[in-house]
Design a protein that fits this description.
This protein is α/β, with parallel strands linked by helices and 364 residues long. It folds into two domains: 191 residues, 3-Layer(aba) Sandwich (Rossmann fold), CATH 3.40.50.450; 136 residues, Phosphofructokinase domain (Rossmann fold). Helices cover 36% and strands 21% of the residues. It contains eleven helices and 15 strands. A seven-stranded mixed β-sheet has the order 3-2-1-6-7-14-15, sandwiched between helices. The protein has a four-stranded parallel β-sheet with strand order 9-10-8-13, with helices on both faces. Helix 7 links the parallel strand 9 and strand 10. Helix 1 crosses helix 9 and helix 5 packs across helix 6. The longest helix is centred in the middle third of the chain and has 22 residues. The protein starts with 5 loop residues before the first strand and ends in a 7-residue tail after the last helix. The chain binds 6-O-phosphono-beta-D-fructofuranose. The site of 6-O-phosphono-beta-D-fructofuranose (F6P) has 13 residues, from strand 12.
């Protein structure tokens, strides 16, 4: 059985389907297999700073496997190494990570399991450098974390995008319209590519390939000639025209990653209206619908595999690592190797080639 340990878990960054499945599998494995004690910090690193936590037992994770969101809540604002605080009526940034270290020591926590994307795991790496035993679990619908084939949450959002495209298809076909769907993904095109390919989109625009709008127009006209008087276009929020910029919807000043993308779908629709005025264009932004709701069976299983692997790494005291998926094998990689890299779509990869082979245009 080995040494009894006290494990803490937190979920940071934007929420994502599968967080509850990860929490559930960490808690169950820790308690049932190794008789560890588990607590959960609330609202990500903010709870760690405020020492705001709940004890997690089998009862607290009962019935949450399929549910989206996180029972521990989350925040994408609280970097404890660069924390926004008010001092003498002025907002300043300061390093409060020692408070977190003190709280972990005070509670007798042996290991901190951090479930998050790039920003959250960067802090996890920094806490490991400060001597805290850390294990990372890769979360994001964007699928843009390095050194893992898939992050949990991604496949669920692909399902949502594919379903939305199916719905746009029937209405677009009825009215002979060009239907534009903007999807999330930050600076990576994974959601657009997989969602669009799964739903037979005609055009997919991704950040990795700046698009030429005349190529998009060509595709619409080609479909007209083939008596297909409607066109389905998926555009990733981080896509941009060859001669233009990404479209920013807002700046969140106190967020570590302050730029929020959004609006390229609307811009594309307006540009197309000018170039092909005899077509009706409609644009939809799927937004946070891609992050909410139940977790897909694929992501539930991936989350369970990640959560159980995290506890095995705790048992083996292999700290400073992130669990990962390579092919169909669960493994782990050093957090040091993961941080600061973005995993973009390989534009010459087999999924892209398959999409091109079936006639999908990437606006190039
Ligand atoms: O990283 C996940 C994600 O949903 C991105 O796809 C999107 O750009 C961003 O988060 C939205 O952030 P927020 O929930 O803060 O608006």
């Amino acid at each position: 059985m080995g040494e009894r340990k006290k494990v803490a878990i937190l979920t940071g960054g934007g929420d994502c389907p599968g967080l509850n499945a990860v929490i559930s599998s960490v808690v169950k494995t820790a308690i049932l297999k190794y008789k560890y004690e588990v607590i959960g910090y609330k609202f990500g690193y903010k709870g760690l700073y405020l020492n705001d936590y709940v004890k997690l037992d089998l009862n607290s994770v009962s019935g949450i496997l399929h549910k989206g969101g996180t029972i521990l809540y989350s925040s994408n604002k609280d970097n404890l190494f660069n924390y926004s605080a008010e001092e003498n009526g002025v907002m300043i940034k300061k390093d409060v990570s020692n408070v977190a270290v003190h709280n972990l020591q005070k509670e007798g926590v042996d290991v901190l399991v951090v479930v998050g994307g790039d920003g959250t795991l960067t802090s996890a790496r920094d806490f490991y450098r400060k001597g805290i035993n850390v294990i990372g679990i890769p979360k994001t619908i964007d699928n843009d974390l390095a050194l893992t084939d898939y992050t949990f949450g991604f496949q669920t959002s692909v399902n949502v995008v594919a379903e939305a495209l199916g719905r746009l298809h029937t209405t677009g076909e009825s009215h002979h319209r060009v239907m534009v769907l903007e999807v999330m993904g930050r600076n990576a095109g994974w959601i657009a590519l997989y969602g669009g390919l799964a739903a037979s989109a005609d055009v997919i625009l991704i950040p990795e390939i700046p698009y030429d709008i005349t190529k998009v127009v060509e595709k619409v006209k080609e479909r007209d000639r083939n008596n297909k008087s409607f066109t389905i276009i998926v555009v990733a929020e981080g896509a941009k025209p060859i001669d233009g910029q990404i479209v920013v919807s807002k700046i969140i000043e106190d967020s570590e990653d302050p730029i929020r993308l959004g609006g390229i779908g609307q811009k594309l629709a307006m540009d197309l209206e000018r170039l092909i005025p005899h077509h009706e264009i409609r644009s939809t932004n799927l937004g946070h619908i891609q992050r909410g709701g139940d977790t897909s069976p694929y992501d539930r299983i991936l989350s369970i595999r990640y959560g159980t692997q995290a506890v095995e790494l705790i048992k083996e005291e292999k700290y400073g690592n992130m669990v990962c998926l390579r092919g169909n094998e669960i493994g782990y990689v050093s957090l040091e190797d993961v941080i600061g890299k973005i995993k973009n779509v390989n534009v010459n990869g087999s999924v892209m080639n398959a999409a091109r082979s079936v006639g999908i245009s990437f606006g190039d």
